Amino acid sequence: MSKIGIFFGSSSGVTRSAAELLKAQLEGAELIDMEEDYDGIEQFEDFDVLLIGSSTWGQGDPQRDWVDPLYELDNERPDLSGKKVAFFGAGDQKTHGEHFLSALGKMHDIFVSLGADPYGYASTQSYDYSFSLAQRGEKFCGLGIDDVNQEELTKERLIGWASQLKDEMQL
Ligand SMILES: Cc1cc2nc3c(=O)[nH]c(=O)nc-3n(C[C@H](O)[C@H](O)[C@H](O)COP(=O)(O)O)c2cc1C
What we know:
Oligomer: single chain
Structural class: alpha/beta
Bound molecules: flavin mononucleotide
């Protein structure tokens, strides 16, 4: 059975709730809160499947608990080839529509540059924003949730995405 690690950073709890819901959908998955549980980049090597969660802040930046780990990954460049990775996180398409979910795009590019295989691309269709570094063609490079403007869609988005991951990653 694949070992699944859900690594998340969340300031006001939205991405945390998403991580908890994903854990409930994916048997045996382990939660790693980047503030409380993260010890170092070797921790990514313990898992076959990495679910990477972050809200977006500032000008399209990852949540603060990701800043040091992403810097270390980019500098130390561990080999993550053979690992499956997928990205999720919260944003606000209305007030921050000029950088909606951009943290997911930045994190995606780092993990993929280290050899991990990306999964879980999701449609951009039910969102309304002007720009996102997470957009790749017609899709986001992960799942976005927006509890500020579309809270009613969050649960079904997450359940649908967990099911997509199970199919794509053969979990
Ligand atoms: C100062 C500030 C800056 C923000 N910048 C962005 C942004 O660039 N892009 C975006 O999609 N959301 C942005 N947001 C919205 C947050 O990502 C959103 O509130 C999210 O739900 C927080 O999730 P968390 O509780 O998991 O940290 C910003 C919010 C604040 C207060």
